[in-house]
Design brief:
By secondary structure, this protein is of the alpha/beta class. It contains 18 helices and eleven strands. The protein folds into two domains: 139 residues, Orthogonal Bundle (DNAb Helicase, Chain A); 284 residues, 3-Layer(aba) Sandwich (Rossmann fold). The strands form two sheets. It has a nine-stranded mixed sheet, sandwiched between helices.
């Protein structure tokens, strides 16, 4: 679209739909953004009519515009502007193009000015540089800025305080007592070594969120959706064990259908799982389309990047966490990133995770609101994932808005369930006849 046609169409949009004027004004702060003298006068007329509270259409503009001697056929010309309008809703798009065209004209003039005077030795180089700097600064200031309203911010803050609108509980009470819940607009990290139940903890939090009416998106990069759904079936069933689901042992069709119907009723339109999205951009598209309360990405070390991205993994993960941070803020949601840990802890006697054990620790720790480690002492000491011990430790190693602490919770690996106490988990395991081994029996 040539420049004059663009201006004509934009003004035609405003004469058809004056509700677009406020949006357009942020992109056209001065009359000279219009190249045509006539269009500058039409724009000033529209603003004058708006200030006086008058209706704005082609007739009021024609009757109110300042007439000049060469304005023969003015009515016909202005009326013709309406013919070029396809949709008045595109007014802002046209205004952005007009804004860009104006800036390009100014830059071109500045370049020509510099080119002309660089050959003049009587003008100091510093003067030319300062002149160019001033012009660029003025153009940057013409960019429309974000509107800040202190009164609206105070109201939003009061609502957050009294209605807890920015906090989302994990549903694990002993953990929420420490962290006070996850904060919308922030990133939380769950990390642990293999076999330390980090994915199971994330799945339990997702289950709690769904039961509390929240919408959750899960990216299952480490396991297929079907295997993750088996965890939910085990969590929602009283008797079906995850181990048996994995190996199809003593599983009855009626039991599976009963639990599936329950999950379908409760989880529909609340849980969304993807196991075939490899990159960040594809993940973000799904997040924006679904608009969830919480996103769980398990785990970020498996995100793929373009083949020509030669940065080391530390910088790639740092870029991913920063992008997730901005997405969380813009969409007002919580993001939970599940991460592996490096092997440093395996060389220590206690094998209790620390912040320095995080894989690519600097970037994850820096961008996260909080970091929670999952520590299953039985596996740490004996390397046995038989789910024999009845408790799990959740170590809050970083908490930007509160305390750090160790939270001991009940854990029944065969039901993929977390419990408030070790005793509750033991009762669940005994009810199925599972063997319960206690770590203290094996102490040296």
């Amino acid at each position: 679209m040539i420049e004059s046609k663009l201006e004509d169409t934009l003004l035609g949009c405003l004469m058809l739909d004056s509700s677009q004027i406020n949006t357009v004004k942020s992109w056209i702060p001065e009359d000279e953004f219009f190249y045509s003298d006539l269009n500058q006068r039409i724009w000033k007329t529209i603003l004058k009519l708006e200030n006086r509270g008058h209706d704005i259409d082609v007739n009021t503009v024609v009757n109110s515009i300042d007439k000049k001697d060469y304005d023969d056929g003015l009515v016909y010309t202005i009326t013709g502007y309406l013919d070029s309008v396809v949709s008045s809703s595109k007014a802002e798009t046209y205004a952005k193009l007009l804004h860009s065209n104006y800036l390009r004209r100014k830059l071109k003039n500045q370049v020509q000015h510099i080119e002309k005077f660089t050959e003049d030795d009587s003008i100091e180089t510093q003067v030319l540089l300062e002149d160019a700097h001033t012009t660029i600064g003025n153009l940057i200031r013409l960019q429309p800025g974000k509107h800040f309203n202190l009164e609206d911010l105070l109201k939003e803050t009061e609502k957050s305080i009294f209605e807890h609108t920015t906090l989302i509980n994990t549903g694990i009470d002993v953990l929420d007592d420490v962290i006070s819940g996850m904060t919308r607009g922030e990133i939380s990290i769950i990390a642990g070594r293999p076999g330390n139940a980090k994915t199971t903890v994330a799945a339990n939090i997702a289950r709690n969120l769904v039961h509390n009416g929240k919408r959750v998106v899960m990216f299952n990069r480490e396991m297929p959706n079907v295997e993750m759904m088996k965890k939910f079936i085990a969590m929602e069933s009283k008797d079906i064990q995850y181990r048996n689901l994995r190996h199809n042992i003593n599983i009855k069709d009626t039991e599976i259908r009963e639990v599936s119907d329950k999950i379908n009723e409760i989880y529909s339109d609340k849980l969304f799982m993807f196991d075939d999205i490899r990159d960040v951009d594809g993940s973000f598209r799904e997040i924006k389309a679904i608009n969830p309360d919480v996103v769980i990405d398990d785990h970020i070390g498996l995100i793929e990047y373009k083949a020509n991205d030669t940065r080391d993994l530390r910088h790639k993960i740092g870029d991913t966490t920063r992008r997730y941070k901005w997405l969380a803020k813009s969409e007002k949601m919580c993001v939970m990133l599940v991460s592996q840990m490096n092997r440093n802890m395996e060389h220590r006697n206690d094998r209790v995770p620390r912040l320095s054990d995080l894989a690519e620790s600097g970037n994850l720790e820096q961008d996260a609101e909080m970091v929670v480690f999952t520590h299953y002492p039985w596996v740490s000491r004996y390397g046995d994932d038989g789910n024999s011990e009845c408790y799990l430790e959740l170590i809050v190693a970083k908490n930007r808005y509160g305390n750090t602490n160790l939270c001991k919770i009940g854990y029944d690996g065969n039901s993929c369930r977390l419990y408030e106490t070790e005793g509750d988990a033991m009762e669940s395991m005994r009810s199925r006849g599972d063997t319960i081994r206690r770590m203290e029996l094996f102490d040296d």
